[in-house]
Specification:
Elements: H1 13-20, H2 24-31, H3 35-54, H4 59-66, H5 70-84
């Protein structure tokens, strides 16, 4: 079970749980993005990062384009190189 329309929340699960009288775990389960949708979104983001890097953009430019941190972009690129068998 997941959220029908997942969106970024402004309150943490603990705050919502206290407000409605439920446990934080229950709140997280109800509002969670379905796993398949999360994985599809993450795969698309990885694909976009690799595409932008192939175009020659710098890590900072890629991070701004896809809405990530520079460290997150670096991690994606590191894992892609590692998976391809290239040491770097």
């Amino acid at each position: 079970m997941g959220a029908e329309t997942p969106a970024r929340r402004t309150r943490c699960a603990r705050e919502v749980a206290e407000r409605i009288g439920a446990s934080p775990r229950t709140v997280r389960r109800i509002i969670a993005e379905p796993r398949a949708e999360f994985e599809a979104r993450a795969a698309e983001r990885r694909r976009r990062v690799l595409e932008l890097r192939a175009e020659g953009l710098k890590l900072r430019e890629i991070a701004e384009e896809v809405g990530m941190t520079v460290g997150g972009v670096g991690t994606i690129l590191h894992h892609a190189r590692k998976q391809a068998g290239v040491n770097s």
